[in-house]
Amino acid sequence: MINEYRQQHPDASVRLMCQRLGVSRSWLYEKPVALEPSQEETSLRDAIERLCLNFPGYGYRRVTAQLHRDGWTVNHKRVLAVMQTESLLCRLQRAFRPPSAGSTKSTYSNLTHELVVTKLDQVWVVDMTYIRLPQGFVYLACVLDAFSRRVIGWHLSKDIDTRLTLAALNQAIAARCPQAGLIHHSDRGVQYASGEYVARLSEIGACPSMSKAGCPYDNAKAESFFKTLKKEEVYLSHYKDFEEARTNLSAFLDDVYNVKRLHSSLGYLPPTEFEASLTH
């Protein structure tokens, strides 16, 4: 509105212009209200966050290079701006706790490629993400049933190590008691490939399955879930500490996502209602 008035009345003074528009001079110089981020900006932020989680040592130039490999058209200045806004550059300075000594790292083929999931506990998909708090970062690992999209296990921790993913897995095992032959699908993160984690899968007769390196779409259901979690809960909240984050995430995962949120892929039913319908 101000710019239009200036174009129509180029000789008008600031004071006269404000009087005619009915606004104060201080209002004229106020910082404009930030607009909601576009879908492209949100997707780019998600992609950058994922890279920073999977590659804790990457700086903005290396992140930019990987984004180019993944098909993004973006320059390093924009990537740097996003990483600064989201405090991802600070995260690179955090100490990384590796898996316990003596653990081994293995890789496995993708057993879900072109597989049609037809029942509960046929395939579990797993992944993890990080959440920024004022004091630093916390990490969330989740286990989902690929057929019902239900979150059947999750764990929040201040450390990103095998204990994080193992706690989420054990919660899922206790809740579902799966039969042997279950396919457990993940990315190639060391937390899912450690000796301790793979041994736990072997105990329940589960078959490890992993995405190809650099192919996040191989784990699309988990990726879609975390995008929903970020957009509908994390980005709308400002957790003051670890306990508040855990309380809010518990309410969203257990009381909203699983019980109330409608899923188009489930015929617009919540996961728990969809699972209940299978028994009738």
Folded structure, characterized:
By secondary structure, this protein is an alpha/beta fold. The protein folds into two domains: about 40-90; about 125-275, 2-Layer Sandwich (Nucleotidyltransferase, domain 5). It contains 13 helices and five strands. It has helices at about 1-10, 15-20, 25-30, 40-55, 60-70, 75-85, 90, 160-175, 190-195, 195-205, 220-230, 240-255, 270-275, and strands spanning about 125-135, 135-145, 150-155, 185, 205-210. A five-stranded mixed β-sheet has the order 3-2-1-4-5, sandwiched between helices. Helix 5 (about 60-70) packs across helix 6 (about 75-85). The radius of gyration is 23 Å and the shape is globular. The chain starts with a helix and ends with a helix.
What's the topology here?
Elements: H1 2-8, H2 14-21, H3 25-28, H4 39-54, H5 60-69, H6 76-85, H7 88-91, E1 123-133, E2 136-145, E3 151-157, H8 162-176, E4 183-186, H9 190-193, H10 195-203, E5 207-210, H11 220-232, H12 242-257, H13 271-277
Parallel strand pairs: 1-4, 4-5
Antiparallel strand pairs: 1-2, 2-3
Helix pairs in contact: 5-6
